[in-house]
Design brief:
Two copies of one chain form a homodimer. By secondary structure, chain A is an all-alpha fold. Chain A has nine helices and no strands. In chain A, helix 1 crosses helix 4 and helix 8 packs antiparallel against helix 9. At the A-B interface, helix 6, helix 7, helix 8 and helix 9 of A face helix 6, helix 7, helix 8 and helix 9 of B. Chain A binds a DNA duplex through helix 3.
DNA sequence: GTCTATAATAAGATAGAC
DNA sequence: GTCTATCTTATTATAGAC
């Protein structure tokens, strides 16, 4: 009946990984910030930190993809939908002082050369988000192939935009990217139509 | 006369930060991989790891900006030049098994909330690269303002593309981004001209 | 400029009790 | 399911000799 404990551990881990990355986040900090029984961590995650981080990454990206799917579903025009979604990300980042955003980027870079398990969780997470974007673009008239490559570019520019925004403490970078992605999609649509 | 020692420490640090990030890179590993006297690290970098990382980041981004300036200078058409540069990055990343690329992204994310000194070194580094890109675009007929915002988007998509490439072990993502950036720039040029 | 030795702390993980 | 205690190993940093 302590699903709540496991969930709290995962939520806290996810938040700490986003702000600090993998190696800077200690198990002690996770236990303390989640206000969770000390003995529970290795009970729920027998493989320790690597398993915990993999689960947190997977969970977080599933939530991100689901959020994107719903958000994009509320605006008919795919170009406007993608634009609005990036603008929404910029707004959220601005509200939080540019201290968050790119929830798994740090972990992905840290682990890509050291933990295959975490690397795969990150790769699958990015893939899921990309497929949501691509599906929306297909509904806007793009071919499956073109939608897939554009989704990759959108995903990358968002991720990179968040890296730059956090580093420079300037969420307007994402606004600029939203503009350029809108322009790119409109132009691509004209070229194909 | 041991400028060589200091330089070797910085070069090794730069390489380790790129592959592992900040917290995963220990001073012991830096000393061992650089084959440098153990006593030299705190002699050259009295403020320890934070100073060393800041210097390594600044040096690396100065070199990156200078490389971009020269590379872009060899191709007249700014659109083709940017395209060729991203393709060159994709090729290099492919040759190294997608284990490198985005030399300071991990550090920037890890430090953006914990070390103002490192954060600033990263921000200045990104800014320098962006200005090189913008200057090239201005020569292609873009207004200063438009060149600046496009340079931001290009920089972000490259950085994000490298994050995705490293995570998915697929350097073709950067190729796709090169295509889309070329298309974006061509379209933007037509719209403004 | 460089050395060794060491301080001081924190990390991830495990064992065994309850 | 949870607790405490502990093992082992790493970390950054400093002191003082040479």
């Amino acid at each position: 009946m302590s699903k709540a404990t496991r969930d709290k551990i995962l939520a806290t881990t996810s938040s700490l990984l986003e702000r600090q990355g993998y190696h800077a986040t200690g198990l002690a900090q996770i236990v303390s910030e989640s206000a969770t029984p000390r003995g529970s961590l290795y009970y729920y995650f027998p493989d320790g930190k690597e398993e915990l981080a993999s689960e947190a990454v997977a969970l977080r990206m599933r939530a991100t993809a689901e959020f994107a799917r719903r958000f994009l579903g509320e605006i008919n025009d795919p170009v406007e939908a993608v634009y609005a979604m990036i603008m929404d990300m910029a707004e959220k980042m601005s509200k939080q002082g540019c201290g968050t955003g790119a929830p798994i980027a740090a972990v992905a870079l840290e682990a890509s050369n050291s933990s295959e398990r975490i690397r795969k969780a990150c790769a699958d997470g990015y893939q899921g988000l990309q497929e949501v974007l691509a599906a929306k673009l297909v509904m806007g008239g793009f071919s499956a192939e073109r939608a897939s490559s554009l989704a990759m570019t959108i995903n990358a520019s968002i991720e990179g935009g968040m890296v730059l925004s956090r580093t420079k403490h300037d969420s307007d970078i994402l606004v600029s990217i939203a503009d350029d992605m809108k322009f790119l999609l409109r132009s691509a649509l004209q070229a194909s139509g």
